[in-house]
Design a protein that fits this description.
236 residues; mainly alpha; 10 helices; 62% helix; globular; TetR/AcrR family transcriptional regulator
Length: 236
């Protein structure tokens, strides 16, 4: 058998990382951060346990990347769902509803994510997934009419993070509709834009337990060849 090409090996590596990201999101959402081990993530992903550290410095970095992937793909779906629009107010409303929707529908996962961001030894870890999320939010701010995106994007990010935190504080959570109303007031958005709390959630805004559409892990039911990094990890 002739050796696989570099492009095939690169695709296998990419899909291995995708499986690890998906497994991390699923397990932390099901069991919480502390109860989720790197071994359990590798087992769920069908990878060698050493492969996790081959791709990610540690569990916190892996989980941050995985949650940022979920956030950016959820936001992307919300912004691009039909009927598609370039109208700035509608896109801002969809962005707010998408992020608040994650706090409402995936509270364990988002609470653990927020807690990780506040840990001094790790904190906020820039990664490709976070950069994609930032690009979408910056574009949303620009389409909404900002004259200074470099100033207004960080403010939107801070307001969304604050709203998610407020919605998830154990014992004293604020209702998502109240937080939505404050954000809509700040950005001068009509209540009926986006996905109002009493409206049926369209595609891209409901809590789907199948997250595979967010992670390019290959064709379902068709086994993939082994990632060359997997063999490296197994030999250590």
């Amino acid at each position: 058998m002739s050796p696989r090409s570099a492009s095939v090996n690169e695709e296998l590596r990419r899909r291995s990382k995708e499986r690890l990201l998906q497994a991390a999101v699923e397990l932390v959402g099901e069991h919480g951060y502390e109860a989720t081990t790197l071994g359990a993530i590798a087992d769920r992903a069908g990878s060698a346990r050493g492969l996790v550290s081959y791709y990610f410095p540690g569990k916190r970095q892996l989980v941050q990347s995985a949650v940022h992937r979920l956030m950016h793909r959820t936001l992307e779906e919300a912004l691009e769902r039909e009927p598609r629009t370039d109208e700035g107010a509608e896109r801002m409303a969809r962005a707010i509803d998408a992020i608040l929707g994650l706090a409402r529908e995936r509270p364990v996962l988002m609470r653990q994510h927020m807690a990780g961001l506040l840990q001094a030894e790790v904190g906020f870890v820039p990664c490709p997934e976070q950069r994609r999320l930032a690009e979408l939010l910056r574009d949303t701010v620009a389409r909404h009419g900002s004259r200074d995106v470099d100033r207004d994007y960080p403010m939107l990010r801070a307001l969304l993070m604050g709203a998610v935190f407020a919605a998830l504080v154990p014992g004293v959570p604020m209702p998502v509709p109240v937080l939505r109303a404050e954000l809509f007031k700040r950005y001068r958005l009509a209540w009926e834009l986006g996905v109002p709390p009493d409206a049926a959630a369209p595609g891209g805004t409901s809590c789907d337990t199948d997250l595979s559409r967010f992670f390019a892990t290959g064709v379902s039911g068709r086994p993939l060849p082994q990632d060359p990094a997997d063999r490296t990890a197994q030999s250590k």
